[in-house]
What does this fold into?
Amino acid sequence: MAKNKSLASESSVHDSVGIIPLADFQSVVDSFFDSRDEGTVGVVDALLSQAVLHRASDLYFEPWKNGLVVRLRLDGVLHDVARVPRGHQERIIARLKVLAHIITYEKALPQDGQIEASAKTHQYAMRVSTFPTVYGEKAVIRVLDSAKSLPALEELGFSPQATEGLIEWTQRPQGTVLLTGPSGSGKTTTIYALLRRLLQGTERPRHIITIEDPVEYHLDGVTQSQIQPGQNFTYDVALKAILRQDPDVLVVGEIRDSETAHAAIKAGLTGHLVLSTLHSASASGAFSRLLDMGVEPYLLSTSITGVLAQRLVRRVCSACAEPFIPDVGQRSRFGLDADIQGFKKGLGCDLCNQIGYRERTAIAEWLSVSEAISECILHRRPTREIEELAQDEGMKSLFTDGIDLVRAGVTTLDELQLVVYPEDHTK
It folds into this structure.
């Protein structure tokens, strides 16, 4: 605990010597309030800094009946790390508002702001969102990686088939490429990895424009814009205006409604390469989702080049991984045979905060629109039929891709079943 005591004695945590174990967060928070009259600034600075050092994607300040609970989201999983007495709650939230340049006295409405990159945040920008609750205001901070830390496409963990497919799709002069998956599945990171690859291409420069909500990463060489619904600058309005700017590559952050869907799909038919995201449970389900939005089947069958559905799974910590044999019931549920060589599980160590997992990797199903699949779309065939046809043509399902990683000792069945249910993938 020597590090914790020295930490509490400094004006801000960025002057401290390093990372603090999750189990010690509460004592560090308590030490700020115990040793000072005003510990709010020190607590906030400490927590922001430690969120970065722990590679957290989000930092939560949640007001509950008995106090303000502090939580970190590490590799997609929430961890309760500290509790702040209710008497300090309002000052903590007010401090976050000051850093994010939002109105401190507005407590009845949600607000959004951004903390600029600085020494206390280890040069990471952070997006702040506040929300009123029955026990006071809640604040969630999203840690935004710098452009330098954006991974290359080959580093995301996709299978060689999916990586090569994405590269081939984006080498085409026109067409629509869709990425699907729930929130937090890495779709935005994949799009930026594709943009980095396009910027590094030596064939010819491309005019790239993005419409996002919000802009999370800044890339030189790309024209980026952020929608402002309150000022009637929506995806639909922005998309129609941008098409008059003659882009070669157009990124639409998310297809949310019929107007945006029609405009994006049509742009893919008129000499533009369109990259966008869509909420769909599977790659094959993207077509029914767009049909439900009113997009005509003939537009989908001719504009969409391919769909990538992705999820993120935690990797077994390499420092504490050991061979592991799942029980018979679990193997049966996943349809696994007796060949269980290569399975691993993390026992927990200081490097992974005793969790057993460290960092995440992607699993994906990669659906390329062939002539046969195009015909299915044109005739509004059921999603299951399109999925079976795609698998016959070589598509590996999310479930199968995940099982391959389990067999390779990269992740576990426990982790896989959190993101993909085996009963949903029987083939």
Q: What stands out?
A: Residues 1-17 have pLDDT under 50 and may be disordered.
